[in-house]
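Intended use. Records like the one below are meant for learning the mapping from a protein sequence to its folded structure. Do not use them to infer anything beyond what is encoded.
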Amino acid sequence: MKTNNTYFLILLLLCQVVFCQNNDRKEVHGIVRVDSILVEGVNIINETTQKATSSNHDGEFTLFLKEGDILVFSAVNLITLRKKIFSSDLDNKVLEIQLETESIPLEEVIIKEESKITAESLGIIPYGQKKYTVAERRLYTARSGLLDRPLNWMSGKTTRLRKELAVSEKEQLMAKLEYLFEEIFYIETLKIKKDYIRDFQLYCIENDDFASSLKSKNKTLSKFYIITLAKNYNKITVYEN
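Structure written out for the chain above:
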């Protein structure tokens, strides 16, 4: 009987200690972003209490905090952030955290003098003037004349040329995407099956943010977006297998 009472007192004491630790803390709701994108799967650790959580699919998380706590935010391809909690953070309705993508170092490229590769062809500097694709030139011609514009609109030619232009732009994006990442990256890193790679690439270029990163030739941002898109794509295809 004495042994049971001792265990009960120890358990009661532990409960009181845990209650006291959380009693002086406030439940804080936070949200994690990269630029304007809500980020899922960011690991968040309170170094003071060793309590941990992660952001959900809406970038949200919840922790019990007090002034002086140190939070550590980390995730793949993102720069780790350490943040000290101040009283102003506790007063806010939502603790907003902004993370940055981790830069990917590029290997040195040596260009021989006899090579035809130029800074312009590598996209380092812009060309002297914009070069239009065949589809862009056709659409411009159909809309430039005083009489051509209404006639082409009534005949449906302008609509057809717009569709051709949209197809042409997607083909250009696909060509850039195929050049940007190797097959092994899709299979091992993104967990995309080999037979699904082409379908996944088409899925990616339909995303406006990813398409913009391809057009701007920002490989770091493109890699961040494609990792997020792969998670969503794998959730969709898992039901097909």
